[in-house]
Each structure stands twice: as C-alpha cells, then as structure tokens.
Amino acid sequence: MSQSVHVRAFRNLLGDGGVVDDPERIATYTTDQRQLFTGSTFAVLKPATTEQVADMLRLAAHHRIGIVPQGGNTSYCGGATPDDSGRQIIVSLERMDKIRELDPIAMSISVDAGAILKNVQEAAAAVGLLFPLSLGAEGSCRIGGNIGTNAGGLSVVRYGMTRDLLLGIEAVLSDGTVVSDMRKLRKNNTGYDIKQCFVGSEGTLGIVTGAVLRLVPLPTRRATAWLKLASGAPLAELLSLVRRESADLLTTFEFMTARSIALATEAMTGPPSVRAGSGGAVLVEFASSSRHLDLEDLMEAVLAEAIETGWIEDAFLAQSGSQRTAMWRLREAIPEGEKRRNGSVKHDISVPISCIQRFLDLADTQVRSYDTDLELSVYGHVGDGNLHYNVLVPPAVDRMEFTKRIESSLSLKLYDTAAALGGTFSAEHGVGRFKKHLLERYGDVGRIAAMRRIKTAFDPADIMNADAIVCPLVEKSAR
Amino acid sequence: MSQSVHVRAFRNLLGDGGVVDDPERIATYTTDQRQLFTGSTFAVLKPATTEQVADMLRLAAHHRIGIVPQGGNTSYCGGATPDDSGRQIIVSLERMDKIRELDPIAMSISVDAGAILKNVQEAAAAVGLLFPLSLGAEGSCRIGGNIGTNAGGLSVVRYGMTRDLLLGIEAVLSDGTVVSDMRKLRKNNTGYDIKQCFVGSEGTLGIVTGAVLRLVPLPTRRATAWLKLASGAPLAELLSLVRRESADLLTTFEFMTARSIALATEAMTGPPSVRAGSGGAVLVEFASSSRHLDLEDLMEAVLAEAIETGWIEDAFLAQSGSQRTAMWRLREAIPEGEKRRNGSVKHDISVPISCIQRFLDLADTQVRSYDTDLELSVYGHVGDGNLHYNVLVPPAVDRMEFTKRIESSLSLKLYDTAAALGGTFSAEHGVGRFKKHLLERYGDVGRIAAMRRIKTAFDPADIMNADAIVCPLVEKSAR
Question: Which Gene3D superfamilies would you find in this protein's record (chains A, B) (predicted)?
C-alpha cells in the first residue's frame, strides 16, 4: 500500500492535528540531537489520547509500519531518530503533555508521557515538593523519553535515576494492548513489575503514555561548595567521606578536570569566580527541607575534615545565591565550551566508584599513546561513578570524520578499559542506534539472550523502534 | 521415568550432599511459614555452584520436573511451598551462602543468593556500612528470597525495598542459560535491565544465584521517639511534617493501634515503658552517619512542631539505648502477641499515603458490619502507605477454618476498599499461591497479559514454581 494511503488512514484515526506530513515540518524531527545522523520518514504522528495511541499502533502493526517514538529529541545515542529507509514513522506525544493529578500528601504526580520535564518540576515546586530528576535538556525533554532512557543527571547520588522515581505507568504495546498501572503506591508486590521493562527500553517494547512519579520534600536550604582538588587526590575516598559526614544530605558531587573548567570559562562572559586546583575541582552541594538544620555549619565541618586529609587545596563555600549560581554555571557551561571549541567525541563511562582513579590513569595513558596531541574534557557525576570522558575535536578538523575515526579505534580501547574494571560503555545515555555494536561487544551473552526474549515477548514483529538495542529472536520478515 | 531414577540422576550431578530424599528431612521444607499449607515432594536439591544450578535446571526441564525455589522458607504467601502432587521438587541454595566480595569504597557487597540476610548486614557493619534491608525474618531469610519477593520491611521509607538495593544479579533460566550481570555500578543504561524481571518474580522465571547489593553509610547516631497519637490525628499529614522537617533523615515511621500495642505488651515480660495514645502510637526514628549533626536536637525540634499541631498527645524521646530497645521491642512483639492470642488473618494492604485515614475508617466500618465481635490488630509501615490490617482469630476457634471463612468474605471487602482507593492487596508479602486469585480479581487485564508474556518468554514450559503468580500464555502440557 502506498504511503499516502497510510497517511490518510492515520489522519482518519488521529484527526488533522495528529498527522504531520509536510516535508519541511517533518525535517525538524529527523535529525538526532548531536546532529550525527539524519533519517527519513513520511509522517510524524501526534496522538492526543491513550486510545489514539492504541488505535494507531494496531494500524501500524497491521501494515507492519515501523514506529519510532520520540520525546523531546534530546537523545545522545540516536535512539529517537528513524533509519534512512523512509519506511519508519515517528510518533511524538507532544499533544499529550498534561499534568493529570498532583497529590501533595502522597507526594506523587501523575502525568502524560509527553509532559516536559521542567513543567513537572515546576508543578511539584508550586506545592512545596521536588521532582528530583534534573538534567541539561530539562526544558525540552519529555517524561516518556526520560523513562525510555532511564535518564540520570545531576541528582542521582541522592535521589537515583528515573527508574527510582517511577511509581506507576501506562503504556501501549505494539498490538494495542494497554497496560494500565497508574498507581501512586510506594509498595505493590503483586507479580512482575511491568513498568520496569519500559524503563530504559528506548521505545522498543511499546509506547509509554502516562506515568506516576515520586516527589520528595522540596529542599529549602542548600549549601554549595567548590573544592580545589590537590594533585592525585583520591576522588572515591573523598566522596566516601563527604557522603558519610553529610549524613546523606549530599545531592551533588560533580568532578571537573582543569581542562573542562577552562573550556567552560571560555564559554562564559567575565572572569570565573572560582578556579581548578591542580587535580581539578569538585562541586559539592547539600540540600535539606528542614528548617531545623544549619547546612552551612554542616558543610563547614565536612570541608574542615576534608582539608585535613590533604586531598583538597582549598574550598569555597558559596556565601550567596549568586556565588552558588556562578559555581553551577561553570559546571553547566562545559558542554557549551566543548561545542564552541569544535565539539567532542563523548564517552559516557561508568565504573565502580572504587575504580574511578584507576580508570582515569589507564585511560589517560591510552589517549596519550594513541595521539599525544589529543585534548580531553573529562568531568562527570562521580558520585555515581559516572565520567563523561570526552575527546575534543581538534580545531579545523571535520567533526564527523574525526568522530568516526575515534569511535572505531580509541573509543573501543577506552570502553575495553572500563569493561575490564567492571564498568560500562553507557552509564546514562543509553544504547539507541549509535551504541548497539557496543552492546554486542560487551554485553553478557546470557543477558543479551534474556533481552531478546523480552523484545520477542512484547514486540515479536519488531515494529517498535527496530534497530535500537536488540532485535527479536526470530528472523524478522520484510516490512 | 520413576522418581528414584530422577533422584539418582540429580545425585550424579550434585553429589550426595546435594540431594535430600529422606522423608523426615524433606518434611522440614514442605510446610509454609504460616503453617497454612503442606505440600509434597520427592527430593530437596541443594546445588553448590551456579554451574550445578544450570545443570540441574537443564535436567529438570528435560524431564519436565517442576521446580520450587525456596530461600529461608519465610514466605507469608506460600510462594516457596510445592503443591501436593508430589511431582515438584524443592531447590534450596543453602549451600551457596557465601559473601563473595565486599567493596567498602564502591559501597557494594556481592553475595551468593543463599546468603542469610543477617550475615550480609553483619559483613557490611564490620566495615562501617549498612545493608538497609531489615525485617522480622532477617535471621533466617536468604537474599535470593528477598529478591524473589522484593522484600520490604522496616526501613523502606528511607532506603526503599530490595529492588532499590540491587545493583547486579546472576540468575539461571529454566533452560540453563546463565544471565551474569554482577556489576557494582550505580548507572548502567545498556538495554533492558534484566535483573528487574527477577525482583518480585517469586522463583517463576529462573533461579537467582548471586547478587550485588548496595550499601550505605552506617548510621552512627540515632534518635528514637514514641509519639502518642491524639484521636483522629491525620497520620499522612503528620508523616509529611516529620519527613520534611527531618530533612529525610527519617528511617522509621511505624504506626500501631492501641489494640496491637496491648497484644505486644501481653507478649512481653514486665510493664511496658510507653503506652498508646487514644489514636494509637507512632515509632519514629532518625538516623545519621555524620558526626557533625545532633540528631536529638533535630528530633526535639520536630516533635515540638508536631505537638503544636495537636495531632499528638505526648512524645517521648529515648534517652538511652535501653529505652530505644524497649520502644522497638513493643513494635516487634506485635506478631508474637497475635500468635499467643490465637493468630490472625493478615491483610498486607497498601494505599496511597494520602488515603490511609480514609482506608482505616472505611475498613473499620466493614469489619463492624461483618461481625461486631471481631477484634483487629492494625499496624504497619505507614511511611510507605503499608498497613498490616489483621483480624484476630477468636480464642478457642479453629484457626484454619476461621482463616478460610474470613479470606473468602471479609478479606475481599477489605481488598475491594483498598483497590477503590488505588491501593493493593499485597504491599510487600507477594502473591505466591495464596493470593493468586486476588491478582486475577484486581490486576489490570493488560498488566496481567504483559506478565504472562514475560513468564512465557522465560519459562514457556512452566517448570519454574508453576501455580505461583501467573501461568504462561500457551496451555501447559501435562507434567
């Protein structure tokens, strides 16, 4: 059947506002966030209700039309971009972006999966609660995408990843079956917890249409400090000390090398308020919802203890909101600084926290022996064992060509090193299309077999985001 | 083939110590913890290695011998007890009970699934860390069982359930496939998180043989208080206040009715150190690993605020370890008190925290209209919305007969009420055999369909703990 016939059928189901087939408007959906790949599609579907999602999927399955769910299109792994066959169709839940219910006493919020993360954060804050998921793309990423990628971000050390914040789900399988489990319960041991399957599934098992999210008391006090690291300071031991003595009120432990801080500084106007130590710097933040705790006293006591170890050269406690903002701005400007330079080849590596220093040492040696001229930008959520180990694209070099070269050579050596330490090639960014070969290279055989069983159970015909993560067990027939 | 031939074959695989077929020794495995059901088996298998588990499962699958994994046999739902056909075989990992590795800096512990919970707690404490899972059966339950049932317990409000404490897993599927994902990573977004499937699966998808568990800094300071509740005090609002003002240092918020406290008192020697208020009592505890926080000051400030609301009649802050122990002893003696009386019919209910009071009011009316002479013991982990709503078996009444009568009448009304409030019939105890009909009654159709797809994907022949939770999609052939 021709694609125009399909478009007409989808328009019958979803209405005029539910189907975009104008090539210019389509083009805003077909390139991934990092602009590494442009796919092709004949339409973008925008269902407005869960029932429409189910009808749409049944129709797609009937005609074996591949579906690529897309949230805010902020994936770093090409997980929301169709292939270049032109036969897959994009589904966006941007018309399903409502807050369904907020229960301040149960500390939960029920939302459409198309809700933008920042809107969820703001709705929670309005009633004195916090939705703790926080990441660079929060102004445009959507909850469905956060669930599909098990998004991490800046507060994982305290509050966990998206998985840890998910209480309930509503999702539609590729045959139109609606799984409805929109409960706001902390505890519900009644068989397999189906929502866990969708977390991190990157749209390959079905379309998440709704979610119940866990909220926590809104921190009303914060203490923020900038720690200039001494050369050779043991990051993991410093983290242990800070976690323990902060009584787990630690919400941020962000490590930055001097090079990353310099890049960030270049991207900012005016001189930086703080600088790196010879071993880099750590941004530390404590947060508390209690009026009865003096967090600055606590931070001062913890910093005094840390300075005594000799691991930090100096520490600055933010004395005002603007000092705090300036410290955060440095951390947040790093990706911008990389972009201004000529971009970077990103490695979203995670290792056991006890192996962070070892990884840094081994990886630096590998980079130097690969090419002594390469420059690095290394920073990350060390509180979770997560390093963004990025190789800067040299100025005036073709970014795509350089990326391909590094990813097929040096990157594999870095991932090998992470794997040898019990680590992983993707801490929080996911697999998508770009890292599928890495999953094959590093994934345990039994684990991948189990993953393929799950894919087969939910989407045997490989309709849902085919080519991301894994394929079903049986050979797929031609679409 | 005869069962003695099977026993010989298993003995060949597992050695003499790996097979128990003496009826007297078998009898210690075939009755459930609550002594509600006695099943039958021809052997108990005790593999000593993961490879033996795989060999054993391949042999069992080949001969279509049903397998019932059993941890410490402390299930409240009959999930570890074979049926009475005599054709299922029990598997115990009691010979696989080692701590494999403890990494204090990564704050993780790797264990055999047969490790006893208390031994894991003690190993962590020996290096200044806490494994936060804590429950009545901790001296005999095993980690594999905790994972299989997603065990909750006394510290969920702060640290979450077993699912939240699991970093890595090793498991064997019914066809002998070993899934090995024993990583100690906080973040690892590399496809479907297979370990989540096993959490709460009650042995129906495979046998968990190893686990990596998350540890947290060991609290070195605690503040414990006993709150006498005023009549009609809003529990959920009190919890909100205490959570917020404790800065999330709250580890315990255990509610007890006056009747439960009286039962506990009867089970203890000597007079109780604290008593119930007219609305019952709440045991509250804060814990911190920091030397720089005065938790008693914090508790006093929070209690002063709580008293001002009028919701509590009085509050006692434990002034010594023995006062703290006495408060805890009252909470912990409740099940014992129920047993001394003549036992109870247990309802492990969870509702959204905002609906706790409404559930208590509605349920009490239902109980009174069912039989005005019935007595209740109601208590629970209200910090998680979890109530143990137990109907006492009247003295000199047959416990089994009474239980069956209540469970087929009043219990359903109570569960209906919980369900109408968005709650559940099983907060932390699981489904097992005893609550399978409840899953059918209350489970969302789409969710159950998805559960059956997962069961089918992992165990199509229904070898693993058949009759617990759900059956596969296809008709099972005769075994």
Answer: 3.30.465.10, 3.30.70.2190, 3.30.70.2740, Uridine Diphospho-n-acetylenolpyruvylglucosamine Reductase, domain 2, Vanillyl-alcohol Oxidase, Chain A, domain 4
